[in-house]
Amino acid sequence: MKPEQAKAEIEKLTEKINHHNDLYYQQNRTEISDLEFDKLLEKLIALEEEFPQFKDSHSPTQRVGGTVTKEFATVYHKYPMLSLSNTYSQEELEDFDGRVAKALDGEAYEYFCELKFDGVSISLTYENGLLTRGVTRGDGVRGDDVTANVMTVRNIPLKAKGKNVPPAFEVRGEVFMPKHAFQQLNKEREDIGEEKYANARNTTSGTLKMQNSAEVARRKLDCFAYYLLGDETGLKTHEESIHKLESWRFNVSPTYKKCKNIQEVLEYIQHWENKRQELPLETDGVVIKVNSLEQQRQLGFTAKSPRWAIAYKYKAQSISTRLNGITYQVGRTGAVTPVAELEPVFLAGTTVKRASLHNANEIARLDLRIGDYVYVEKGGEIIPKVTGVEMEKRPKGSAPVVYIDKCPECGTKLVRVEGEAAFYCPNLDGCPPQIRGRIEHFIQRKAMDIDSLGEKTIEQLHLLGLVKSPADLYDLKKEDLLRLEGFKEKSAQNLLAGIDKSREVPFESVLFAIGIRYVGKTVAEKLARYFKTIEKVAAASKEELLAAPEIGEKIAQTVFDYFRNPESQREIARLKAAGLHFESTAKEPEKESDVLGNKSFVISGVFEKYEREELQEIILKNGGRVLSSVSGKLDYLLAGDNMGPSKREKAEKLGVTIISELDFEKLMKG
């Protein structure tokens, strides 16, 4: 293709992709399938790589990410991002209204109400209609420049479209992780045996500070715009600014309302107290603003917050109900999770029958007993959880819950690894939910990506004895599938075609798909690129595995054990015979420095700026080593939030240096 042809094609594809993005994210409708959209995007990426001179900094390919940021520059806000005063009571809201009325000296005024979203505040600067900078709130005076990450949030316009767009303006918004995206992320972490994230808000904050924008893009963040600032906007009310943002194709939550007086504000608050649970994100209150921008200027600011706005916070909804029993669920990795079976109770807009109990430690901490009346809360956790016991209602003669010692599915004695909270069923090849879970993991999009195969179909295949391991999928015939409920000629052909197409999946995805514990997508890619072939991974000693990027002792041990299991060896041989790819052509990134001087690290907990995998990669690229367990020879325990207490206690006992995320960054600077 000639350069002039490429330029025209890039412009045409850019316009088409932007059109479909706008339809999907701003108008909630589509004209093409996800597959067709992905093909358009792939074509544009390929053309931009071949003809980089025509790549625009605001191309829709920026949504995919790929920029790696070593450090986030500090940026001073043109307009300070002050926090709001909070209240939980109607009386304090009425007091606020009284202060507004007094300060305006009898002048008529009205309010504008918006839901308070539980995410991360962001400042977006536009110049000549183009997004030029995205900055976190920080301390309100200055924040971090996270522009590369912000550009991956698909409903933040890279270019403002519409009439009368001023040459420069700033948009304030709330970046958040939708409930479905948060649940999917936690499902993926649970799938590889990793600790789940506690809530969507903290996860969003950490995601915005990730160094690799491609990983940020993968997490599918969202954003609601709620404030417009600028010297030449020509606006008189906050309501006008919201409508202006909507006209420029910014994503504004339609839940706002203009209120004539404080009574209408209180009605708005009451209306959304339960209805907000139906929204796709977490909310924790209502923001009330004086609508007139001139009156906002008259009212002014205190040192910390505006006098013309206040946030009403909903109290965390908690209710007491009877604990009727505890059931135990077995996951793909064999982890056993206890679930509270409750007397049904209406909470936060839904009827709650079950709640999370996390693990055996939590049951012991709460001193739970069957028949107890327990407090159940549904805050920012998505899944209801048991938070306490109403002791005065405890039945006499009740006994503490004794955690099960055998698998509820197959009866195998449970095991517990030192330093871990969960109990596991070790019957990998005979426990039904583990078998089904392993197949579900194998066929998922990031693994073998087999269409037309879902949980119900897998369950039928397993019950009929047709599929007991992933390799059995490649032996299926049309007559086998026609035995399944709901399957006819066409659906059987589609499934067989999907299985056949999966033979094209690269080694990196195959290695992830076979389901070695703790080997997530990123770790599988690192192993595949480092060892190149399945034979070399399988033959590697523990020491050789530890030498690979991102591989600590825990991962090295599980990989080593997996390939020495005769059943695993048979499975790999069958998958090879089925024609799957077991050789990589990708390259491992090169080492960057020796600043960490062969120091060893154990990483534990959840971090604000980094994923654990990112920290592992930084350590390995800069001459350090990553281990999985604490010993006297360890140099540093890198401790994040929600770190298991046993690791900290062991490190303190052995005199190992415990460092924070900030300490680690200082260490990296030498």
Automatic annotation (TrEMBL):
EC number: 6.5.1.2
Cofactor(s) demanded: Mg(2+); Mn(2+)
GO molecular function: DNA binding; DNA ligase (NAD+) activity; metal ion binding
Active-site residues per Swiss-Prot or TrEMBL entry: 116
Keyword annotations: DNA damage, DNA repair, DNA replication, Ligase, Magnesium, Manganese, Metal-binding, NAD, Zinc
Annotated BRCT domain residues: 591-670
A Pfam family per the record: HHH_2
Record-level GO cellular component terms: cytosol
Top enzyme category: ligase
Catalytic activity: NAD(+) + (deoxyribonucleotide)n-3'-hydroxyl + 5'-phospho-(deoxyribonucleotide)m = (deoxyribonucleotide)n+m + AMP + beta-nicotinamide D-nucleotide
PROSITE patterns, per database record: BRCT (PS50172), DNA_LIGASE_N1 (PS01055), DNA_LIGASE_N2 (PS01056)
Annotated binding of NAD(+), by residue: 34-38, 83-84, 114, 137, 174, 289, 313
Coiled coil regions, renumbered to chain: none
Keyword Electron transport in annotation: no
GO biological process, one term: DNA replication
Keyword Transferase annotated: no
Residues holding Zn(2+): 407, 410, 425, 431
NCBIfam families xref list: dnlj, PRK07956.1
Family under the similarity heading: Belongs to the NAD-dependent DNA ligase family. LigA subfamily.
Reported function: DNA ligase that catalyzes the formation of phosphodiester linkages between 5'-phosphoryl and 3'-hydroxyl groups in double-stranded DNA using NAD as a coenzyme and as the energy source for the reaction. It is essential for DNA replication and repair of damaged DNA.
Protein name: DNA ligase
Source organism: Chryseolinea soli
Gene name per UniProt: ligA
